[in-house]
Amino acid sequence: MTALLSRTGARVERLPLARYTTLGVGGEAEVWTVQDHAQLLEAMEAPYRILGGGSNLVIADQGVPERVIRLAGQFAATDLTPDPHLSTSDQIVTGWVGGGVPLPGLLRKLQRLGLGNLEGTVGIPAQLGGAIWMNAGTRYGETFDGLHTLEIVTPEGARQVTPDELPWTYRSSGIPRNHIVTRARLNLRPSTPETVLDRMQAADVARKGQPKNRTPGCAFKNPTLEDGQKVSAGLLIDRAGLKGMQAGQARIAPEHGNFIVNLGGATATDVHALLQLIRERVPVPLELEYELWP
Ligand SMILES: Cc1cc2nc3c(=O)[nH]c(=O)nc-3n(C[C@H](O)[C@H](O)[C@H](O)COP(=O)(O)OP(=O)(O)OC[C@H]3O[C@@H](n4cnc5c(N)ncnc54)[C@H](O)[C@@H]3O)c2cc1C
């Protein structure tokens, strides 16, 4: 289908969602690419979903019935200029960075400027808005370590909040689903490019054993056993002898049991078959880490 322009100028087209996910799976939807607040508010006039970097999603082969919103234009712009009123010698508050900005590129820019606080999120293939919504992170740091102010848009309009106004916790911002994080001002620590790089490399080492194929990251959360002990979901999947098992073109990664990878041409049905197999064979209840659409 050729792209149409909406009343306010948003680009509207039917597209396969597979191309917007790290797994490379997902059928079609009506995709609204929005550049500014007027276009975003128009897109939100009917049932919608907001798509970030697609790095935590398994989207059904038949796609989704709702509009899928993608942030572009002013929501994908980066202004790292320090705010002279809020910045001090040990704290830099930046201008607005769009929710649609890819996190890896943002971290590279911050590293070159010698600005720390977000380096613990290295290796997460999210957009800034998706990383904020999930409070994505690693044991070296999380997204909320580097935020000053957020802009959140709902069908009622835009509002600004500070992190301490949100009930954020481990891997959650507390922001309700479909409240869209359009942009954020970052709260950063002045350092040197070398120090930030060292910290990024330390955080990145933990990823050495992860598979290189297309994947939506870890499949299951690490469960807590009855005795209160946390155990690695990957280890449980490995112990159940499931590494390397394949359904269609999806495979449980031989390198790490908690990753399902797309060998090329996998479908959501293939991925669901492996998730089901894992749940049947692992003797501990497992909670899904990624999100299923619909
Ligand atoms: C190789 C790999 C490694 C990973 N490693 C980690 C890790 O170390 N730590 C970690 O926490 N996660 C990790 N992940 C998972 C994933 O990157 C995170 O969950 C990330 O926060 C998802 O962001 P996204 O922009 O890709 O969102 P998407 O996958 O596009 O969407 C996920 C959810 O966020 C919502 N969302 C997206 N954008 C916005 C927005 N602007 N406003 C409001 N809601 C929004 C979506 O509607 C959806 O509900 C990894 C994934 C992969 C593929």
TrEMBL record:
A Gene Ontology term for the protein's cellular component: cytosol
Active site (UniProt): 171, 218
Broad class of the protein's primary localization: cytoplasm
Obligatory cofactor(s): FAD
Gene3D superfamilies: 3.30.465.10, UDP-N-acetylenolpyruvoylglucosamine reductase, C-terminal domain, Uridine Diphospho-n-acetylenolpyruvylglucosamine Reductase, domain 2
Enzyme class: oxidoreductase
InterPro entries the UniProt entry points to: FAD-bd_PCMH, FAD-bd_PCMH-like_sf, FAD-bd_PCMH_sub1, FAD-bd_PCMH_sub2, MurB, MurB_C, MurB_C_sf, Oxid_FAD_bind_N
Pfam family, one: FAD_binding_4
Cellular compartment(s): Cytoplasm
Gene Ontology biological-process annotations: cell division; cell wall organization; peptidoglycan biosynthetic process; regulation of cell shape
Domain FAD-binding PCMH-type span(s) in chain numbering: 24-191
The reaction(s) this protein catalyses: UDP-N-acetyl-alpha-D-muramate + NADP(+) = UDP-N-acetyl-3-O-(1-carboxyvinyl)-alpha-D-glucosamine + NADPH + H(+)
Keyword list, A-Z: Cell cycle, Cell division, Cell shape, Cell wall biogenesis/degradation, Cytoplasm, FAD, Flavoprotein, NADP, Oxidoreductase, Peptidoglycan synthesis
EC number: 1.3.1.98
Family note: Belongs to the MurB family.
Described purpose of this protein according to its UniProt entry: Cell wall formation.
HAMAP family according to UniProt: MurB
Designated name of the protein: UDP-N-acetylenolpyruvoylglucosamine reductase
Organism: Deinococcus sonorensis KR-87
